[in-house]
Give the backbone structure.
Amino acid sequence: QVRLVESGGGLVQAGGSLRLSCVARGSISSINAMGWYRQAPGKQRELVATVSSVGSTNYADSVKGRFTVSRDNARNTVHLQMNSLKPEDTAVYYCNAHIAPFGNVYYDYWGQGTQVTVSS
């Protein structure tokens, strides 16, 4: 059974920083892309940032220059460093990973979500 466990959300003032972490646990053969999505109240879930198994990154335009995604392949972990936070970054942040529990068939896994609230 594969699961993603997130940590690091919380309340911060505008201009502040937070670091989110997500570790993949369980029976894992290999992990392809990992990343973060977010969903604000009344809005659809949107991509924040992803990182491939070889370190290629992709960011939403709204977070470029402020957020940095990174991963530790040895620890099956992905991080999201969020700087210069804005009230519009307030959302539930979800970790996502493409994982092959065995062999080379990949499935999409999601974390339980962690709340990030940025006050003005």
